[in-house]
From TrEMBL:
It comes from the Bacteria. NCBIfam families: PRK00142.1-3 (NF001135). The lineage of its organism: Bacteria, Bacillati, Bacillota, Bacilli, Lactobacillales. It catalyses: uridine(34) in tRNA + AH2 + O2 = 5-hydroxyuridine(34) in tRNA + A + H2O. Its EC number is 1.14.-.-. This is tRNA uridine(34) hydroxylase.
Length: 323
């Protein structure tokens, strides 16, 4: 079966004189061709992921390549069954990936050594090299490179502090970093060099490029890669694919992401359909009995049914004790 849609992932650090004007024109163009996705624009450059038919995405790439300074933007392309986004957004942001450093990094001035998939693969096999995942913990949990360090962060902005707190573990070693499409590593690896880490490499083009390399084919990647669109995850390892993610409720292998049914929590958790039903899509007893739990309304459960389902797992709507 042929896939008629495509998802594009791209970025470029390139000075934009008037980001607001750029945003207006960019959004207008995207809408005119019916593209969907999210593009962030700053005076430092652009960062985006968009989806559309083969024809729409072809037009978009031609458009971006026609913009002065963006002639060489590298688009990572993935075929898809449908749009991977619901709407089209183009937004002005101070930083196209928020790292919030007090003293910002210009990747054109300082950045880690670029490694192609083969070189990165060699680094993964080298015992004296430390591999650091620069993504968030929930991205890591769905899939990561074998042996990579998992920083305890929920957001990229927290990474520099985490590294400083754990400096002793890897200050004197060779370090290689990686992320989804490469953009997070551009400033981050530059920041590491500025902090005094001596040997820092980055996976050029990110995990996405690594998975498509005709020779490496994603070898040494475990699980799937988390993506920030409707697809949620995509395969990377085409040599010996595996599942590393675990069900939040019973710890069994699982790759299904859901959001907690409590709209005030909304925590992203991995759970099978079976456990989603059993635990009423709630990540905690409090979320399961939350008055606005979306699972209850979507399934039209009566208060009595709700109570019975909670009783089945030893809980109650009237639960007064605090967990
Ligand atoms: Zn919750």
């Amino acid at each position: 079966m042929s896939k008629n849609y495509r998802v594009l992932l791209f970025y470029k650090y390139q000075t934009i004189e008037d980001p607001d004007e750029f945003v207006t024109e960019h959004l207008e163009y995207c809408k005119s061709i019916g593209l969907k996705g999210r593009v962030l624009v700053g005076s430092e450059g652009i960062n985006g992921t968009v989806s559309g038919t083969i024809e729409q995405t072809k037009k978009y790439m031609d458009y971006v390549h026609s913009l002065p300074g963006f002639e060489d933007v590298w688009f990572k392309e993935d075929l898809a069954d449908n749009f991977a986004h619901k709407k089209m957004y183009v937004r002005h942001r101070e930083e196209i990936v928020a790292l919030n450093l007090e003293d910002d990094i210009d990747p054109h001035q300082i950045t880690g050594q670029y490694l192609n998939p083969k070189e990165f693969h060699d680094a993964l096999l080298d015992e004296d090299t430390i591999v650091l995942d620069t993504r968030n913990d929930y991205e890591y949990d769905l899939g990561h490179f074998k042996g990579a360090i998992r920083p305890e962060i929920r957001n990229f902005r927290e990474l520099p502090n985490w590294v400083l707190e754990n400096k002793d573990k890897f200050m004197e070693k060779r370090i290689v970093v990686y992320c989804t499409g490469g953009i997070r590593c551009e400033k981050f690896s530059g920041w590491m060099l500025r902090e005094g880490f001596k040997d820092v490499g980055q996976l050029h083009g990110g995990i996405d490029t690594y998975g498509k390399d005709p020779e490496i084919k994603g070898d040494l990647w475990e699980g799937k890669m988390y993506v920030f669109d409707e697809r949620i995850s995509i395969p990377i390892n085409h040599v010996n694919p595996s599942v590393v993610a675990k069900d939040y409720f019973d710890g069994k292998p699982c790759e299904r992401y859901i959001n907690c049914g409590n709209p005030e929590c909304n925590e992203q958790i991995i759970a099978s359909k079976l456990n989603e039903d059993k635990y009423l899509r709630g990540c905690s007893a409090e979320c399961r009995r939350h008055p606005r739990n979306r699972y209850i309304s979507e399934n039209n459960l009566s208060t009595q049914e709700w109570e019975e389902r909670l009783n089945a797992i030893g809980e109650s709507l009237k639960n007064t004790h605090t967990a």
